[in-house]
Amino acid sequence: MGEQTRDFQIFKRIVVKVGTSSINHPNGKLNLFQIDALVRQLVDLYNQGKEVILVTSGAVGAGAGKLGFQGRPKTIPEKQAAAAVGQGILMHIYEKIFTEYGVTVGQVLLTREDFSDRRRFLNARNALHTLLRFGVIPVINENDTVAVDEIKLGDNDTLSALVAGLVDAEILFLLSDVDGLYTADPRKTPDASLIHDVNEITPEIEKLAGVAGSMGTGGMVTKLQAARIAMHSGVVTVIARAGKKDVLRRIIMGETEGTVFWPLANKLENKKQWIAYSSTVQGRIFVDKGAANALSRWGKSLLPSGVTGIEGVFELGNTVSIIGPDGMELAKGLVNYSSSELEKIKGAQTRDIARLLGYKDYDEVVHRNNMVLSI
Fold it and tell me: Which of 313, 311, 312, 320 is nearest to 364 (CA)?
């Protein structure tokens, strides 16, 4: 347990993620009572002067209900079709209810590629900051209509954690159909107790994730992955039950509800956060023991002399995985030379780069400022 205070009223920027099971009835139709209760809480926070971002699931469910599917669509094209129909239905309802409370909303659809490409990442960041500046509540969903397996974020839990990092939010709520993380499955173990505070996601905590809830596509495992991303981004994360009356207001006022994951002291700066969690690895660079020590112990940059091998095709500015002599990933980083250039200078001294390539743009293969050690 920490010495932390649960008074979250000082926080200004809030991301709230709501799961499919919290806004849909079991038959796929939208649960208007629950949506209205959620929107009312968000608008009340907005009226207090807070900046609110909503990350919502439920488009596929809403579309499947409209198209008459029995249960969840099975194939990717069916899922995309359901999302295309459901996205409009979902947004229409949100817009209608938010408008009744006098607030403007803007729809933002994101895919993995919007995070993995640095330029698109910064564009998304600027767009969201601009919406907030104009007093708009962004309503974000994964773009299921165009997303296929390779670019899917896997679950909106992960999406919401990346969004929280993207906009420098202070708190992330993961609202679902469970009260939080339990010591055991509360449906099978009557004396299972709710864990109120988590300071570190240990293997023991990860084991508990297999026991709680039947939520949408995610479950507790993806919620812990999201919490880990948020913790390293300096964001407080709370898992709580969406259906509890005024749950957001009560948690922000300091009531002991849900499970709070406290951020780590050494918050990753924005660019390193992006390298660690959002960027897509394009290749691997293998290094010798000396380079591995220089990176992991002394926080040095990677020089060509320590490189023993290259795997994959990558260009200047791509993200690469740096692999030690034991085959384990040491770090990720933005590379200063393409794979073909690196083949020519691997193992060489810095002073020899210009002779081998005919030019020298950088001394380092990966500069320490563009590198994140693997956690």
Answer: 320
